[in-house]
Design brief:
Blueprint: H1 2-20, E1 29-31, E2 35-39, E3 44-51, E4 57-64, E5 79-82, E6 85-88, E7 93-100, E8 111-120, E9 137-146, E10 162-167, E11 174-179, E12 186-195, E13 198-202, E14 206-208, E15 213-217, E16 228-234, E17 240-246
Parallel strand pairs: 2-9
Antiparallel strand pairs: 1-3, 3-7, 4-6, 4-8, 5-7, 8-9, 10-11, 11-15, 12-13, 12-14, 12-16, 16-17
Length: 249
């Protein structure tokens, strides 16, 4: 328990530095996939981690329900993940086991949680008169808890999305309102709107929850009432599902 508390404290200290340096460096511990799908009729699922560096790392893993700023001890989910803390030697792999506790979850739609992997490299030996910055890196990917009796398939869900144009927040241009009538989460990596002889692109990514709505503000889009949509959605394996749609009146 003492070790976990110390790690939590260190994570809070170094996370800001890691975010600031995210564009200049990369974590050495990588996850084997861009998302995790947990069929709720299975006893457990496994996730593979690999240390691609030449140095060992101390790794802490946990799940949260959507609040990226929640403390580890306060992140309550209906899953157990083992091992929660471990050392990874250079060039080695580690398999995580995620086990569903059986706590009640909706059975008519997917639920989403987040897998966090905190990579803490060994402490560098400081050199005289040289400033150093010790970094830890957190990777966070989605975990979809999927009941076994959902209708259709997740690959069918993107083509069932309904698209409408609405005013953007604060009246600045226009946005797309996406309505998802399916039981699956639908994640998009890119959306292109063709209307009035112009093309408007949105590549910030986003997700629409089951039986929910989400609004994406489209840069520079104005005066659009109808048009064509080309989208790139993301499947269970991180691959692309491309499709076309029409803006609804």
């Amino acid at each position: 328990m003492l070790m976990k508390r110390r790690l939590n404290c260190r994570w809070q200290t170094v996370l800001l530095a890691a975010v600031m340096a995210a564009g200049a460096a990369h974590a050495s511990v990588t996850i084997g996939g861009t998302r995790v799908v947990y069929p709720l009729d299975q006893r457990e699922v496994t996730v593979k981690l690999t240390n691609d560096s030449r140095n060992p790392s101390l790794v802490q893993v946990w799940l949260d329900s959507g609040d990226s700023n929640a403390k580890i001890d306060d992140s309550k989910t209906p899953f157990v993940i083992t091992p929660p803390i471990f050392r990874m030697n250079a060039g080695r792999s580690q398999t995580l086991r995620i086990i569903y506790s059986g706590d009640a979850l909706p059975q008519d739609r997917e639920s989403v949680f987040w897998l966090n992997v905190l990579d803490i490299p060994p402490k560098a030996v400081p050199k005289p008169d040289v400033n150093t910055l010790q970094l830890a890196y957190r990777t966070r990917i989605k975990l979809f808890a999927r009941p076994p009796t959902l209708p259709d398939t997740p690959d069918d869900a993107p083509r069932q999305i309904e698209w409408k144009v609405v005013p953007a927040d604060e009246g600045k241009g226009q946005a797309l309102l996406l309505s998802n009538p399916t039981a699956y989460h639908v994640s998009f990596s890119k959306i292109t709107v063709t209307a009035n002889g112009h093309r408007y692109e949105y590549d910030a990514g986003g997700m629409v929850v089951p039986h929910g709505r989400e609004t994406f503000a489209i840069p520079k889009m104005e005066g659009v009432q109808s048009g064509q949509i080309h989208y790139i959605a993301i499947n269970d394996f991180g691959g692309a599902i491309e499709g076309d749609a029409v803006i609804s009146p």
